[in-house]
Amino acid sequence: MAVPAAVELVDLALKATKAYERPDLSVRLEQTRRRLADPSVRVLVVGEFKQGKSQLINALVNAPVCPVDDDVATAVPTAVRYAETTSVALVREGDDPDAPPQRTEIPLGKLAQYVSEAGNPGNRAGLSYADIAIPRKLLAGGLVLVDTPGVGGLGSAHGAATMSALPSADAVLLVSDAAQEYTRPELEFLDAAMKLCPNVACVLTKTDLYPHWRRILDLDRGHLERAGVRAPIFPVSSSLRLHAAQTKDDELMAESGFRDLIDYLVRQVVGAADVLARRSASQDVLMVTDQLAAQMQSELSVQENPERVEALMAELNKAKARAEELKRNTSRWQITLNDGVADLQSDIEYDLRDRLRAIGREAEQLIDDADPADVWDQFAQWFHQQVATAASANFVWAHERARWLAARVAEHFAESADVVLPDLQFQDEGMARKVDPLTQPEVEKLKLGGAILTGMRGGYGGLLMIGLATTIAGLGLLNPFSAAAGLLFGAKTVKDEKKRLLERRRAEAKTAVRKHIDEVVFQVGKDSRDMLRRTQRQLRDHFNALAEELATSISASVLAAQNALKTTTGERDKRIRDLKAELERVEALARRARALVADLPAQQPTPVVAR
Amino acid sequence: MTRPVQPGGAPSLGAEVRILLRRAIDVYRDSPAAVGWLQHHLARFDEPLRVAIAGKVKAGKSTLLNALVGESIAPTDAGECTRVVTWYVDAPVPKVTMFPRSGVPKQLTISRAGGGLSFDLLGTPVEQIERLEVQWPSQSLRAHTLIDTPGIASLSKDTSARAGAFLAPEDSPTQADAVIYLMRHLHATDVDFLESFYDQGVARATPINTIAVLSRADEIGVGRLDALNSARRIAQRYRADPKIRALCQTVVAVAGLLAETGRTMRQHEFAALTALAGLPRKEVDSMLLSVDRFSTMELDAGLPDAETRGRLIERFGLFGVRLATTLIRQGITDPTAVSAELVKRSGLDDLRSVLATQFTERRDLLKARSALLAIDLVLTREPRPSAAPLAAEVERILSGAHEFAELRLLSTLRSGAIALPPEVIAEAERLLGGEGGSPAARLGLDPSADPQELRAAALDAATRWARRAESPMSSRAISDVARLVVRSCEGVLAQLPH
């Protein structure tokens, strides 16, 4: 949420950097300002299919924006955001991450043709997402609700794609209807989601329909507790809320359970983003004021005590050396970063290979135990699921480790530089989002998830599917089904002939499995290497910029101190008065920056994750 | 039932398999294990058909079982409930027996608690129980023994594993002759599970013993009055889906709760519903916005109190109450008529007629199939030279019996492997008995059609398919299909009185 106070503060600080001729500091503040200008807070609505996800969004915004049907499920992610006039656009992102996505405006009534399984089965049209903008107060704070295709457990392709979009989300709502308690796949999904996203909440839908929803709620709470998942559950009825809004019935509205959910979204989710925005704005401004003050302070001390100039210069030079050191490749944070990324890269790849090797072994065992011609369909599905699950698990783990590395680098930088930790920013994948504001919001943000999403789609959906499809075709030639049905029972007499063919089928099936695993290692490996490289670049750029600023500030201080010696005694008093006044002005700015975060809760310590 | 004698005067399939079972017992007389197993199957031949009700957790298996039986006997609950495989068998006196994995069967005491029976397991942990057998006097159980199974994809892995081990055991053919598979919406795990039924040698080619049920059909349309139409439309879509056709006979939509309640509605429930139906329409609609409102709203004295309404909603569901009050308001004042209408709308009648055509009429065939699987298992486990003729006989029956040929061809047609226009495939499936084995069902005529009409239709079909079989334009696969269809038509003709 754009906090007007924060924007105002940053504007003031910007003026100060211009006045004191520190364009290097302006760059940082301008980035901060751009970041504040983008208020998007993305909330992913996920869950098994046919649980009422689309209807939940419709009820939240009180408008039939997402197509709802008894039968047909959602096939394309749909983002619902704020705008003053209603509009709907279909977005198609190309393979080239730098090319701008292609947008097509369509009327709202036509949306179902593009985003539902009926109109666009399995997202054949290759849409990246649908983008709906509507004028709703709830969304005005920057809330963006994203409706996702239902998952059928961790192993399904949709599940993997949803998983990859989690890190770039500000919150996740897991939707499950009150017909039954949580199933194993749902709990597994929750567990993974908790690791990837800071805000996870559960929504129990359709409470109007099920007399036993309170029992289910209790059972679900029990399941969450046993699984160690700390997430609130909100029982709601979308149809009651829509009805209540139509009839303006307050009592019904209360019964729908939406107040708590909306309260959570506004306070916790948007609130958390708001806190983050304030913290980062405050911190960036404080950093600027500190550096400006340092320069004035050093001049002031020389002006006040010219006899101590030497001691001061010595200190400044020491600081300067330290700042220079920070910029060098041999500095501690640089080493931590470079070594860390290299380690991570090999660890993650090892982890993936390890997981896949286990699957490969099991697959070969299965092939040896049966005739691939008979079991191929089931086998292919099983195998595909196992691989997708392994890739998801690897992704979650890689992500946790990368976050942990970012925290360590920040820590080491802070230790040597004695600067404030650029806080929370490193705690979410945000690296791209919050730290590097050049990566622009929605388009880019979806891109970040999107890049991996497309990777997943290409890697785990399309490519793998094609790989398996050709193998199936190959096996099909050996086993024409029409003949098989009649021959199966009579085939025992030709055992020898069959045995020779069987061996060949087995060998072919195993080759297919190995080739496929290679392909996965290649694709997924590339994805995680890219992710790491991005992380490394962003961290390096961020901290290098910081080191640069520090060095410039110290140089400026040295210069100011030297210049101070040249002033005459007559001028000195005036200069001291001026400097004190300037310092007071900078200090006032710092006070405002501190006030911005004064009433915020204490910051949580950086979580440390290791395997 | 099935005709005793085949068109050519050969002994019926059932008789052939029975003879084969006896011969096998004779060959294996020195192996007590084999004899026990085979004798068990001989006895099973005369038992009612065993129909297992399977599905994911909370798919409504026990509720549907109650609806089929017409009594609330299987325990049901909002949470996961059935954790042990439970057989419901017709018997003169009620009795519950627990079969532990090891040790002797124990008789349990029966008590009735709210919904369904409850059994005291005498402190035996569920994982040590192989199955429970509930003997219960019931007309409905006479036609087929029903088997309630724990849900798959349960949070408790052991419970899922027990269901899997029962329905698709790794080491022996399944104990059930046929399966009703329940699902709420078709989920990937449902497909996996359905597929697992066809892993086994002989059974592989027969999705013939499975019917899929879209259960909790009233909830699919979130309890709207037209919810069941919506559910039927979905079932129809699934029926047309080649992937699902290859896995089960057909898909039916059933609102299990409505069916159970319809069959067991009590007078006081009807009275309460009538009182509610007397309220102004608007008031009833506003009450029925949610279950909470319905059961807690303040009403005038004399109308059903909150507790009564709470029980009503539990028994009928929101949809059931909506439907029942609408029916009463429309002028149906006889409780029997209301309950019949509820059962009809629930889709239970559809399911029962499908059960009759697909399972009961094919009883001998399904039983023969189970028995052949059992013999096949003995032959592979304990091969011996003297058993060689038996193996040949199993092969002969499987490849020779026209019933099995029909089954295999049905599966092949359903798999889409034969390139014929859809309407021709549909006719072939019907003639092969895909929609029921009676002459009228095969010919697609009304059950009341007179023999003359049937004969004419059968002759017509036979001539047409014979032409297709001999046409030089037909590929070999199509000729084979056509020849089998002609044979089925001849079978129909032989069955008709001259």
Which features does this protein show?
heterodimer, A: 611 residues, alpha/beta, Rossmann fold, 2 domains, nine-stranded mixed beta sheet, 18 helices, 9 strands, 66% helix, 8% strand, disordered C terminus, B: 498 residues, 3 domains, two-stranded antiparallel sheet, 11% strand, globular, disordered N terminus
Helix content bin of chain B: 40-55%
Using DSSP, what is the number of strands of chain A? 9
Q: What structural class do the secondary elements of chain B suggest?
A: alpha/beta
> What structural class do the secondary elements of chain A suggest?
alpha/beta
Largest sheet of chain A: 9 strands, mixed
GO cellular component, one term (chain B): membrane
Keywords (chain B): GTP-binding, Hydrolase, Membrane, Nucleotide-binding
Domain Dynamin N-terminal (chain B): 51-86
Subcellular location (chain B): Membrane
Explained architecture:
The complex is a heterodimer of chains A (611) and B (498). By secondary structure, chain A is α/β, with parallel strands linked by helices. Chain A is 66% helix and 8% strand. Chain A has two domains: 39-256, P-loop containing nucleotide triphosphate hydrolases (Rossmann fold), CATH 3.40.50.300; 305-566. Chain A has 18 helices and nine strands. In chain A, strands 4-3-5-2-6-1-7-8-9 form a nine-stranded mixed sheet, sandwiched between helices. In chain A, α8 links the parallel β8 and β9 (233-235). The longest helix of chain A has 72 residues, at 495-566. Chain B is of the alpha/beta class and 498 residues long. Chain B has three domains: 13-255 and 349-360, Rossmann fold; 259-346, no CATH class; 418-498. In chain B, 54% of the residues lie in helices and 11% in strands. Chain B has helices at 13-27, 32-46, 61-69, 140-143, 157-167, 188-196, 217-220, 227-240, 242-245, 256-264, 267-277, 281-287, 291-296, 306-329, 335-346, 348-360, 363-381, 388-400, 402-414, 422-431, 439-443, 451-470, 476-495; strands at 49-55, 86-90, 95-100, 106-108, 110-112, 117-119, 129-136, 144-148, 178-183, 210-214, 251-253. In chain B, the strands form two sheets. Chain B has a nine-stranded mixed sheet with strand order 4-3-7-2-8-1-9-10-11. In chain B, strands 5-6 form a two-stranded antiparallel ribbon. In chain B, a hairpin with a 4-residue loop joins β5 (110-112) and β6. The interface between A and B is large, with 50 and 58 residues. Chain B: It is found in: Membrane. Chain B: It comes from Pseudonocardia thermophila. Chain B: Keywords: GTP-binding, Hydrolase, Membrane, Nucleotide-binding.
